[in-house]
Amino acid sequence: MRSLKLAALSTVFNLVFVACAHSDEAPDAPPPAEPPDGGDAGVVLDGASQDARSLISDAGPCDLAGGPLAGQNLYVAFDSDRDDGNRNIFVERVDGTNVTRITNYPGTEQDPAVSPDAKELAFASDESGSLEIWMLDLASNARTKVTSMGVAGADEPSWSHDMKSIAFRSGTDIHVIGVDGTGEHMIIKGPDTGYGGGVNMLNGFRRPRFIGDDAHLLISGVNEVYTVDLAGNIVRTIVDNGPYTATMASLSPDETELAVVRQCLQNSSTATVTREPAAADRADYCNGAGVEIVGYGTNPAAGPDRVVAYQSNSDLVSGGRSDILLTAPACTVDRPFDLTLGQGDNASPSWPPAGFVPPAGVGPT
Fold this sequence. Notes:
Layout: E1 5-6, H1 50-53, E2 75-80, E3 88-93, E4 100-101, E5 109-114, E6 120-125, E7 132-137, E8 143-145, E9 155-159, E10 165-170, E11 173-178, E12 185-188, E13 206-211, E14 216-220, E15 225-229, E16 233-239, E17 246-251, E18 257-262, E19 272-277, E20 292-296, E21 298-302, E22 308-312, E23 323-327, E24 337-338, E25 346-350, E26 363-364
Parallel strand pairs: 1-16
Antiparallel strand pairs: 2-3, 2-25, 3-4, 4-26, 5-6, 6-7, 7-8, 9-10, 10-11, 11-12, 13-14, 14-15, 15-16, 17-18, 18-19, 19-20, 21-22, 22-23, 23-24
């Protein structure tokens, strides 16, 4: 097992990522907007109008499918308990239509990750007793259990670009395994808190994402974001540990932008989602060059054309549930596009590759 090892920041990594520094104070940001009157859209609205899905409509709809994503037929994958209280994997077109349930198995299915060729789905399921990584062939509906991590479990899978490996979190550590279930090994070890009851998962590493030539991973800690090589060496510290949260980083498909969860509001524990360039230095923590607060929530997924999907149960979403919200440069921070519209509790958005077509599978919900 490899422990956390420090290495030179510039010798190994051939991609340029953001170098973030901390300021003593985070900049002011506008408070979350209140939902419009009668805005609790707790009904089935597959294909609802843009106005209905825009949480604040006084400035017109936050039109994604007719704007930056026009004609691209893109989907967002996520997990939800909307049908029967059991959490399953769904996909939904970015215009809010063609909601399709992909899984319907015993137990919980979460953390969807569609393969780069759009033919397979990796996800976490507790069907075998603990969360493990499974793969689903989207054409044949055949399933394969990939990991056997036992009580430590496995979740948050990420495909390598060559589709030979999957990175995942187990307990507080980051691991990689072959898609055939062989070659599992630890990449970087989190705090040695032990497994079982009472483990504080927030103390560990999470959200591994293959980047570049698959020789490096983007990973997040409690208050920091790193890139590491597959030997566990920290190659670059993108966001260093500081007074405000910075975690759950996601890299856009073209690897030009990051979406990061930060704590940018002064004297507030509200989590903010930022969109920021992946190749620019910044002098300040939350208001450096190119850093934009785009929403209030968690689990961001940086998508194509500067669109970010994220999970939110902020004041923008009533009823205490979590919805999947989308935002783009044309949208203001308090006017995201509500993709899921309160249909159950929704989490862990991710972007299937361009060209993804939902399988017949379980079918539209």
